[in-house]
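Lab meeting prep.
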Amino acid sequence: MPTRSWTTRVSTSWNFIGRSQVEIEQARADWATGSRFGEVKGYDGGPLAAPALPPVPLKPRGRVR
């Protein structure tokens, strides 16, 4: 399976990955409203709530190639 390398640094929070804090915040909001991510078939429970984002800016990680 081919791998794809990141060309920019990324931030992560919980299971969200983005190129900026704004992308992480949007992904978290989309998760909470159910507007962007699919459902897990066969799981009887409701969706897990994403934890609150930390009260500090997220730090981008990784290396730029």
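Slide two material, second protein:
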Amino acid sequence: MPVLVLLVLLLAGYFIFRRSQAGVSGKPCRWHEDRFRPRGRSQCWKCAECHVEAFTYDGQPPKECKRSLRSGGL
């Protein structure tokens, strides 16, 4: 019985760790323009690796990764 409890705790810890690392692949960002958003002065870009959104005013994709700026939601 103690082995089963230990196994469940290890599995839970593993899934919590994997959840916290979601979207952090270590690969450089590959930006794609989000053309479905209404166009204003800025353009929306979405990273195919870390799934963050960024906006630019010059029509060019962002030059640096924004994954460290990801918010937890509203």
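Talking points for slide two:
The first strand starts at residue 31 and ends at 33.
The mean pLDDT is 80.
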